[in-house]
């Protein structure tokens, strides 16, 4: 136990993380609606380290799995890490919405793997652009994503 704590502290200093506003509400909404969730990260620490960090911020999370590049040897935007996530989830890529804050790593990578990309622009680095014409949904806060998903669910129920 002490070694895990020490490792977690080092990871936090090297790459401090913090939850974005509205994330707790989004995760609660998705769970309530029966929408499955997972994490795919380019973090260069193992998934156990990232799981500890996520559990500290969101102890009630329902992520089915947490993957990091460190564990799978492929970094986003390589489509292989996204395809590995599909296999782990036992879902085809077309059924997955992938949300991320990087146009190249998250939007381009998930699109090339066959997923529907959602760009979270609130935390994005300035002046990000995509050279390719890739369709993706943009949200500037998680409440906006909740509203969009809620509208889609309402349409399907009609």
Automatic annotation (TrEMBL):
Key words, A-Z: Hydrolase, Magnesium
Cofactor or coenzyme needed: Mg(2+)
GO biological process: riboflavin biosynthetic process
Pfam families attached to this UniProt entry: HAD_2
Highest taxon of source: Bacteria
Presence of keyword Magnesium: yes
GO molecular-function term, one example from the UniProt record: hydrolase activity
InterPro entries: HAD-like_hydrolase, HAD-like_sf, HAD-SF_hydro_IA, HAD-SF_hydro_IIIA, HAD_2, HAD_sf
Keyword set includes Endoplasmic reticulum: no
Protein name stated in the entry: HAD-IIIA family hydrolase
Organism, as annotated: Eisenbergiella porci
